[in-house]
Sequence to fold (295 residues):
Amino acid sequence: MINVDILYSGIERIPNEGEEIYSKEFDIQLGGGIPATMINLARLGIPTELCTFLGDDMFSNYAKTQLEHYNTSYHNIYNGNGMPLAITSIVTTQRDRTFISYRNHFTLYEEDQDKIYNKLKGAKIADMQLGYLEVYKRLKEDGTILVFDVGWEDGMSLEKYSEYLKLADYFTPNQKEALEITKTKNLQDAANKLKEYFDQVIIKLDKSGCMLVEGDTTHIIPPLENIKAVDATGAGDAFLSGFIYGLYHDYDIKDAILFGNITGGLCVQGIGCLTRYVNEKELLEIAEKHRKQIR
Fold:
């Protein structure tokens, strides 16, 4: 599903009920999720195919224009008359972000799953999200590498995601998500729970880099230095673009995570998901300077 973000930044506090506050900055952008990852992958020169749901409303038309602007190939699966995307207002203060969102839930039919599979058939890598399990089962049988990522939601648990975790080759939660999903109190215990599904456990550590657990060995892939974080919106999706770039070009897992740390780290230096990014040449140059830190 496409997200459209309405961004307010440069305010001192969140207004109370009945109050009005003006922000210093304002923008409208495509939001996070798989579309943001696909756009950043396209910027890195990776061929992408995005299956999504767009109507004839003003926000859907905006999203179509933006996808074309970013040279991101997409296939519209939606045939209804509603507004089949999510709208989020994001208010950013010096301390944190606040979100108010609207999402139009619609029925996904079997023929829609068939359309998505037919568009993605033959892909080397697929970025998984909830709701398309039958598509991923078929892609897995074809040999597609499956990467599963989740955003925070109520009711996170291993039981809820079990069928997806069994299918996925890689899972990339952040530390808060990993602790909540596994119902543990420290990251090592969370990693041990996730080792039931994966030989290589990945947990993003926000500004501290990324944790990789292989067997009894734990590695910390460090973050970029001197990052001046402005807005963390979309950092996880940007990380995923660098990580998938590494998998696509058959780099080892540590290099793939390093690429993710670079794309995710640079993302937070701009407002929104897509403002700050690197092209392929810049990514490889930065990675070469930092590669010795992970050996």
